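Give me the 3D structure for FeS cluster biogenesis domain-containing protein.
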Amino acid sequence: MKLEITPQALDWFRRELSLKEGDTVRLLIHYQEQESNCFAGTGFSMRFSLEKPRKIGVIAEVEGIMFFIDDDELLYYPDFDQLVIRYDRGEDRIVYQMD
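Predicted structure for FeS cluster biogenesis domain-containing protein (99 residues):
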């Protein structure tokens, strides 16, 4: 699977999390009973955490900032070839697009 962070999304992460070169952002799946912001009604949504990687499955390094998904969580992405993280200016939030 390919991981892409758009320049606008990178700017959002820097602004909201005060990220700097050398920081690492873990992308993970979170189960929630409420269906808003879930993948097609599955009950799962994306979250992120500032953590050092343990066992990297997918990685994207953008301007010295590492975004990654742990290897043991790739099973949650079985039908996806790509995860693109975008910024929605109208809603001032991050959007996760999976193809």
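The CA atoms of residues 23 and 65 lie 5 Å apart. Let me know if you want a second pass.
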